[in-house]
Fold this sequence. Notes:
Two copies of one chain form a homodimer. Chain A is α/β, with parallel strands linked by helices.
Amino acid sequence: MKEHSVTIYDISEQAGVSIATVSRVLNNSSNVSEATKKKVLNAIKDTGYTPNAFARGLGLNTMKTIGILAADSSDLYLAKAIYYFEEELRASGYDSLLCCTGYAHKDKKAAIELLISKKVDGIILVGSNFVYPDVADNKYILSAAEKVPVMLLNAELEGNNIYCVSSDDYKSMYKATGELIGSGFRNILYFYNSLSYSGALKERGYRDAMKDAGINVVERQLQFFEGTREDVHGMAAQLEKTASTGLKFNAVIAADDTLALSAVKYALSKGYKIPEEFSVIGYNNSMLATCSEPELTSIDNKLETLCQKLTATLMGVLSGEEMPKKTIFGGEIVTRGTTKGGTSK
Amino acid sequence: MKEHSVTIYDISEQAGVSIATVSRVLNNSSNVSEATKKKVLNAIKDTGYTPNAFARGLGLNTMKTIGILAADSSDLYLAKAIYYFEEELRASGYDSLLCCTGYAHKDKKAAIELLISKKVDGIILVGSNFVYPDVADNKYILSAAEKVPVMLLNAELEGNNIYCVSSDDYKSMYKATGELIGSGFRNILYFYNSLSYSGALKERGYRDAMKDAGINVVERQLQFFEGTREDVHGMAAQLEKTASTGLKFNAVIAADDTLALSAVKYALSKGYKIPEEFSVIGYNNSMLATCSEPELTSIDNKLETLCQKLTATLMGVLSGEEMPKKTIFGGEIVTRGTTKGGTSK
DNA sequence: ATCTCTGTTGTAAACGCTTTCAGCTTTTTT
DNA sequence: AAAAAAGCTGAAAGCGTTTACAACAGAGAT
């Protein structure tokens, strides 16, 4: 299998030119006469030669590769983002090296270092759970940015060589909460499962919307779900338990569609009429939104646009252009069966 | 940014040893005294040195990297598989280079060649849509296998250096169809969206089960959905349309949970009682199964086990061991709300 | 006919690491 | 105490590219 593979020397010999010329043809650089070019190309075809990426990388010091880091590629939202990134990067002539780190800090750090040692030309951190509330914990990102540009999706961090593209989670959540309030709901539960950067924004959006409407929020109204991100049963059970302890709520605003879906399940099991007696708004407008019955009203933050913008920014940075360090896109509420039209009750 | 980075020479100088010794410490190979080892490690820490993967690769001719190819990382099932592979590979000291190819043949071929040019040590093809019914179309896999081992998940292809690990889709589908028949259903629709290798197996399972039960199948009973894999509405609409043309069916067996979910939606919209008047069985037992209401009976083919087995096989191959070229795992039916217990009606 | 310029090609030195081989220093054996 | 073995270390030769530099031919200018 791993015999002596064809090298540039073999080509040079067969074509009767020097290796420099072969290399020039390979990179179709500078001036090579048509005649020799043809000879070389023929030899390449004959031998089935493919350049050795290592050697090439050694010389060029770039692999034309971008490292993508995501906590969990099986998360619907992250998976979609990864897909878009892959697509955009390939279109720009870059390949991607994906690492799924899991949610532990140590692993994230190790993964980022690994990518750098693989000589990626840039790093994309997908999802806000790479940025911690405690600034000291983000040092690992800063030191990565000393070597290659670091792009953050849906998170913000100031630093040299760090660029952020994110959705306006604060405003989206503020608006969505406002819509529930506008429909006459006051006992609105906020259901979340991530303490990430954007998670904090969402929470603030919820709190501010409630406050601005003059509604008092008790801490138990913010329910944190600790289980896995797919455990719909567990989520519904937590709502059930919360209700059974006496907290009243007839609307749920969720930080994620899965959580929202569990709220629908819960409400149905209680016999509530949706959306009249019980409303739900999800987040991300994933395919789950149309899977649910009734279908979920959900916040769409135009992931594809975000990913495109982020990739474009990265490409700009790599080619030495000055690029905006922070870009924010607004989201929109996609109204479906779990909320009323939005007119006040 | 891209200043002169720290090399093994800097370390050797700072530690007062030769580069050979540094290299030895790096690979914790052979015999290095504790004292010098410590000196070197300190120097490494001080300088923040990371080895250059290219140079290393040039010497070793391996990047310790496995290429993972999947058509679409945002497909729930594939995403999950990718996640497991990443995890397993990392545990074995390998990194992964992921390429999402899309569903077009040309792109798959290009992606596989790209991976090889990046000097991956092996390739994993995730999902059966890499193997075509027409043998000639699979040549691109065979020629990849001339360079590195190729692993197939849920597909089969004979060839040197090709290894397959798959679920027993034929048997699972046969059993599942049989279960519906056993519950008294005869007008069972088969709903699918992929012409892949495993897709063909599933179809055959369905057909044989029907035949063995003495039930005649008309071609319109096999419904192929052409739209995107997430378009639940479109799927339900197709069922609706099929029914409106006069074809009667009161059970659906789907090649995928999303399809099954759309069948549930359809049945509910028609006012059928599930599972008594209308039953549904999905495939893959994804999170969608528990999202649906009622929840989906679905076939679980133990993806994690498959992925572990596949990775283990690959590791074996890479270390020169003789490995089975074909491994098949049986699946099991997870019964939930869309089917009766299984006792005959 | 000489000189300069331009276009094309070859030579050789990097790039940063691994690894063989040989040499030196210990330790163990006899 | 001498000989043999074992343990460490360093020098140097690759690995397959890219690229700066030199060289050389032929064309145009003088």
